[in-house]
Design brief:
Blueprint (H helix, E strand, L loop, with lengths): L7 H12 L6 H8 L3 H14 L3 H4 L13 H15 L3 H10 L6 H10 L25 E5 L3 E3 L2 E10 L5 E7 L4 H15 L4 E4 L16 H8 L3 E4 L9 H17 L5 H17 L36 E4 L5 E4 L2 E4 L8 E7 L2 E6 L2 E7 L5 E7 L5
Parallel strand pairs: 1-5, 5-6
Antiparallel strand pairs: 1-3, 2-3, 3-4, 7-10, 8-9, 10-11, 11-12, 12-13
Helix pairs in contact: 1-2, 1-3, 6-7
Length: 384
């Protein structure tokens, strides 16, 4: 349904109303209305900023595809996109091509420099090619970004990213890092996109316990119950989570470009806009200048509010931990994991070492001769 088939004003209003719905697919919607994604996001952004459909009625109705633009009009379009997104020449070139304007990267850079829109902070080393999973939902990366001060508190940005596509499945402005706050965000993500095969995170709260030395927390146990294998990045080695760390630099720049919010609710609205822009508009060099939404699809594994009991291999040596996460083995008491109080675990003795697994994860190794133990947190192979 291109703009010209009916009233331009009417079509814009229809578009922003449908695009503002959480269930909307921006790429499909733009194709339906016969416009580019940058144009669609421009109308949506004006609608959101104005808080009214008047936001899309007050602007010029001139067509967006002008084959014979004058040099001044071309420069103005480059400048407008730069000011709207704050991106560099390579990414802007992709958007310009979608607008029917083919400019070389060097030309775009010259325009930006001439207009005083290139700053030292914009320069960075070329992106490093990183290992990635073969399919969407094989691995999600999750991490908190450094917090922001807001009116009456702090904003803790929580990011959840698909390793294969770079698609941001979750970006939340949270008022704290407590278990229940994070759990509700994860459930919302799972209900929308399904459950991944595995998740990668750091040794931080609320998914890692430093207080009792036993690794798992109530939150990480709830993830294991969904059949998710957990991987933890090396201590003080954030490069293990390179993709989500890189996104956080992009997020910082995007917040700065839009103007830092002052309340938690304002941060939530800004994050919603940034997430859409990142997934559907911003070209990624690692994706050959495509957008993440074209490489992602939801998981077929549905979230289970009440996970079924785990079926361990037939003949397994099973024991139910007491409410404090402990057990007796060979007349000695061992603490396995406080967060697993009351759960059933599997025991395997190998070379005087007792391996304790919970569902699909090894969680503890106990030296039967000395009684010493350490957290493992390693996935169990599927055939074990």
């Amino acid at each position: 349904m291109p703009w010209g088939s009916s009233s331009v004003t009417e079509e814009r209003v229809k578009f922003v109303i449908r695009a503002s719905q959480d269930s909307s697919n921006m790429s499909a919607l733009c194709r339906e209305f016969g416009i580019s994604r940058p144009t669609g996001y421009k109308w949506l952004d004006r609608f959101v900023r104005a808080g009214s459909v008047l936001g899309v009625l007050e602007h010029s109705r001139r067509p967006h595809h002008i084959p014979n633009r004058t040099p001044e009009e071309r420069e103005d379009l480059v400048v407008d996109l730069r000011r709207q997104y704050g991106w560099g020449a390579k990414k802007l070139r992709v958007l310009l091509l979608q607008e029917g304007l083919d400019l070389k990267v060097a030309t775009i850079n010259r325009i930006l420099k001439r207009r005083g829109l290139v700053h030292v902070k914009d320069s960075h080393r070329p992106a490093v090619k990183r290992f990635e999973r073969e399919r969407p939902n094989q691995l999600w990366q999750m991490d908190f970004k450094g917090d922001y001060a807001v009116w009456c508190g702090r904003c803790y940005p929580l990011s959840i990213l698909d390793d294969h596509s770079r698609f941001i499945v979750g970006l939340y402005a949270l008022g704290g890092q407590d278990t229940e706050t994070v759990r509700s965000s994860l459930i919302a993500t799972f209900e929308r996109y399904g459950v991944p095969e595995a998740m990668l995170m750091d040794h931080g709260v609320p998914w890692w316990s430093n207080s009792n030395g036993y690794g798992l927390t109530r939150l990480s146990v709830s993830l294991i119950k969904q059949g998710i294998r957990l991987y933890f990045s090396g201590v003080r080695h954030p490069q293990t989570q390179g993709k989500v760390e890189r996104f956080h630099r992009t997020l910082t720049a995007a917040v700065r470009h839009r103007g830092r919010p002052s309340t938690l609710s304002e941060f939530a609205e800004v994050f919603k806009a940034i997430r859409r822009e990142y997934n559907d508009v911003r070209p990624h060099e690692s994706l050959e200048m495509d957008v993440p939404s074209n490489h992602y699809h939801p998981s077929k594994r549905a979230y289970e509010p009440e996970p079924s009991a785990w079926e361990y291999p037939e003949g397994s040596d099973l024991v139910r931990l007491n409410q404090k996460g402990g057990m007796y083995y060979r007349k000695h008491r061992h603490v396995v994991c406080e967060a697993l109080g009351g759960e059933v675990v599997r025991l395997e003795e190998i070379n005087d070492k007792l391996l304790v697994s919970y569902r699909q994860m090894y969680i503890r190794e106990i030296d039967c001769s000395t009684g010493r133990s350490r957290a493992l947190l390693l996935p169990v192979e599927p055939n074990q």
